Amino acid sequence: MSEFTPRYLKDYQPPLYRIATVNLQIELEDRDTKVTNTMQIERQGEHNKPLKLDGEKLTLLSVSVDGVELSPSAYQLTDSELCIAVDKASFQLTIVNEINPLDNTALEGIYKSGDAFCSQCEAEGFRRISYYLDRPDILATFTTKIIAEKQKYPYLLANGNNIDSGDLDNGYHFVTWHDPYPKPCYLFALVAGDFDLLADSYTTRSGRHVALELFVDKGNLSRAQHAMDSLKKSMQWDEQVFDLEYDLDVYMIVAVDFFNMGAMENKGLNIFNSKYVLADEKSATDDDFFNIEAVIAHEYFHNWTGNRVTCRDWFQLSLKEGLTVFRDQQFSADMHSGAVNRIRNVRLLRSQQFAEDAGPMAHPIRPEKVLEMNNFYTLTVYEKGAEVIRMMHTILGEQGFKDGMALYFQRHDGQAVTCDDFVSAMSDATGVDLSLFKRWYAQSGTPIIDVSDHYDDAHQRYSMTIAQRHPDTADGQPKRDLHIPINVELLVESQVRDKQLLQLTQSEQTFVFEGITSKPVPVLLGNFSAPVKCFYDYSDDDLLDIIVNADDAFNRWDAGQQVFARQIMQLLQEQTHRVPDTVLSALQRILVEDGDNALRAEQLTIPDFQQLADMLPFVNPQHLVGALEQLHLQIAQRLATDFEHRYHTLTSSTFAKDGVAIANRALKNVCLHYLGYTDKGNDICRQQFISADNMTDEIASLHVACVHNLPCKQTMLDEFERKWQNNSLVMDKWFMLQGRQDTDEVINSVKALMQHRLFSLKNPNRARALIGGFSQGNAKHFHRGDGQGYRYLADQIIALNAINPQVASRLITPLIQYKSFSQDHQKLMLAELERIAKLEGLSRDLQEKVNAALQISA
Ligand code: 7MK
Ligand code: ZN
Question: Which positions are annotated as active-site residues?
């Protein structure tokens, strides 16, 4: 039985009190930081209910109302709440408490990252700083005075504008910040430390001058320029596409090494995991550069979608996250190749979000029940949430969507609102009825659409029947039919004849196409127009036809993915299955012909283990790994000379960072991966490692050496360690790759690495790299039949439970998704889950997931 109580969307109540202004004074010390919080509080309406403030891990020193200190008998205090009865409609409340940043390993509230103080409040971390109404519909104006030792902490930062500063006695100093925009406390931020500062500026379209300040650890200035460039691009894009400008005089970004997530959009003071800030070509891969630009954009875009208009309650998280992910996807597509970006989005969705929807934590993009809010920063809320926004974009069209956004801001600027408010703005701005569409917000699970067709030769009429199905999900909610936009092309004699957007709104509908001169091949779900699984009984030739002739690049890629998946099914049925020549020659054509190398790299990449597991119920993971190896091996060996030839045409002598060079490296390293299955692999890998002048090529060769366990592996790992030991982001890659080695010794290696002088479970990036690298990047050994892989992960989760529940809770993902595997593996995974369930002091985060996995009701 759980000691924690869940919260439900249906129980939402407007707040009984409002906080108009907050005046914080924070006196920073490692173990006893003093927080003085003076709030102007307004009772909402006539009632005599007490004021209940959230607070966790706080040491309360005093409570005063309108300047008069209360005696402890005037309030009640528990582990999570301070309850005060005040008989006034409006009053000033002052609370003084202490916190302990140094021992805060959960990295929520105020904590230390290295020598700096920093904060993370979303979702409910502010209650670890002061007693507060810690809910997003409380919008207050914050003034923050920070006091700290000047020498150690020359920079004292908080949200808004710097309005005062000065020196104090004993080597201390202070800075006072005022943020004019009322905000929920989850957007509060504070940083104190000594940094290098990259300063720049941006003038908005309307002429506002904005100072841009990027703070990084001393010595890292040369790795900050790409992040700064990305920020400026983001600011410009939002002006051009959505007419949205920045609204303060300064925009600050601080990079810290200890951070639970990617980054945080605190008003005017973003705090970033240094992984998403620091880059130069020697130490960062092309993907790192791409991701930095995308995350900088994401946090910047939150200034409007999240900060100016925020969420009424945490069930509405997708209001800001789904929308902001959609916006950052559109931005990335505009900055780079639209097709390749879309393909990568779809890969992520299919491999991880579909698994989430099929697993024990299945939830709608607007969840209805939450035990620990941190557990709902999910692929479903973010990525499927973005797909739901994208479907509205598809249904309303580019202009309709922009009109909807404009109306949304016109109506709701400065408010805390719901997903319903967003959809209403979209619908009212365009006159399109979205009432059926809104069901996407309330329904979990990946819908299936089944397509069948009929060609009437005599009338040259083609009819297509589309039906939707909704498999049951773990949340047990009833399913209803959805409004699903489906892009369709018809290939008639290998020519694109008809392109249409079909809108499926019933459980089954038939669409008729006239004047079709011969039986067409339907090309379905163009640009992945809905987050669904789509089935149609294609012949192998149909798929090859689509690969070559479809207009839509996503469809061309996707047909290839279906060909790969079919080969996997056949290999699972018959280990000696020989991949047909037709498939090989299609791949060969992709490899040898000229075209977009980034797209071809994607076309040559087989769906991953996770995605295939989601397509194959109760699969034995070892068999699936075996089939994947076989498919790679056959392709690699039978096209060896083509891979080798292509590889050598793509090795360039000098490094460049433009799109073509990036695409060339992507394709070259896909070739290298296949060559790893051949006897040429070792020499080519070693040579690439030695001659690499950039991290993309260097890490690709090390990766191939590890996953193929090539003879050159150990030397390269040792050389890499010596070269990069002082760069922690690069060392994360080194730890990660060692978890991916294909050797029976890998679990022992990983355990040994936990004793490495650079390893610490307290560092989230490091813990995720090593533990996640193994458990989420090494299916073969994680799913070992002796259960050792599962046991290792469970041991680490148990250790992390006491250190950092959020990191523990994210790492448990592959263990709770046991249901897609065969019985013997399920049993082994369940045994580990049961072991975790029995742990004394199990965090709320883990309890929610483990109970869901074991079907224990709260
Ligand atoms: C992304 C919340 C933050 C998971 C993915 C992010 C978080 C968790 C960045 C932290 C974000 N608001 O901007 O969404
Ligand atoms: Zn976000």
Answer: 299
What mean pLDDT is predicted for residues 275-281?
Answer: 97
Give the distance (Å) from ligand 1 centre to CA of residue 673. 32
Is 300's C-beta closer than 6 angstroms to any atom of ligand 1? no
Mean pLDDT of all residues in 414-433: 99
- C-beta of 356 in contact with ligand 1 (< 6 A): no
Give the pLDDT confidence of 727-770 residue by residue, as tens digits: 999 999 999 999 999 999 999 999 999 999 999 999 999 999 99
Of the pLDDT bands very low, low, confident and very high (cuts 50, 70, 90), residue 652 is confident
Residue 406 in tokens: 């404009």
Ligand 1 neighbour 291 (Cβ under 6 A): no
pTM assigned to the model: 0.99
Q: Which residues contact 680 (CB under 8 A, 6 or more apart)?
A: 640, 644
Ligand 1 atom closest to the CA of 123, numbered from 1 = 2
List % helix, strand, coil for the chain (3-state, nearest 5): 45, 20, 35
Q: Quick: pLDDT tens for 325-359.
A: 999 999 999 999 899 999 999 999 999 999 999 99
Q: What is the model's pLDDT at position 103?
A: 98
**Pairing label, strands 310-311, 416-417:** parallel
Q: Measured between alpha carbons, how far is 677 from 477 in angstroms, rounded to an integer?
A: 46
pLDDT surpassing 80 at residue 143: yes
| pLDDT of 1 higher than 50 | no
CB-ligand 1 contact for 372 (6 Å cutoff)? no
Tokens encoding 750: 């990983």
- 423 with 401: CB under 8 angstroms? no
> Which residues make Cβ contacts (< 8 Å) with residue 257, sequence separation at least 6?
113, 114, 217, 273, 274, 728, 763, 765
CB of 296 shorter than 6 A to ligand 1 = no
**CATH code for 339-535?**
2.60.40.1840
Band (pLDDT 50/70/90 cuts) for residue 653 is confident
For domain 734-858, the CATH architecture is Alpha Horseshoe (1.25)
Query: What residues have a C-beta under 5 A from ligand 2, the ion?
Result: 321, 324
Tell me the CA–centroid distance for residue 188 and ligand 1, in Å: 15
Domain with CATH 2.60.40.1730 in the chain: 16-194
Ligand 1 atom with minimal separation from the 302 CA? 13
CATH of region 16-194: 2.60.40.1730
CATH 2.60.40.1840 region(s) of the chain? Answer: 339-535
Structure-block tokens of residue 591: 């490899």
Whole-number average pLDDT of the chain: 98
Distance of CA 799 from the midpoint of ligand 1 (Å): 25
Please give the distance, rounded to the nearest whole angstrom, from the Cα atom of residue 325 to the centre of ligand 1: 10
Closest-CA residue, ligand 1 atom 1, reads 262
298 CB under 6 A from ligand 1? yes
Q: Is 481 in the pocket of ligand 1 (CB under 6 A)?
A: no
pLDDT, tens only, 107-131 = 999 999 999 999 999 999 999 999 9
**Backbone φ and ψ of 91, nearest 5°:** -160, 165
Name the residue at shortest CA distance from atom 4 of ligand 1.
377
Residue 299 CA to ligand 1 center (angstroms) comes to: 8
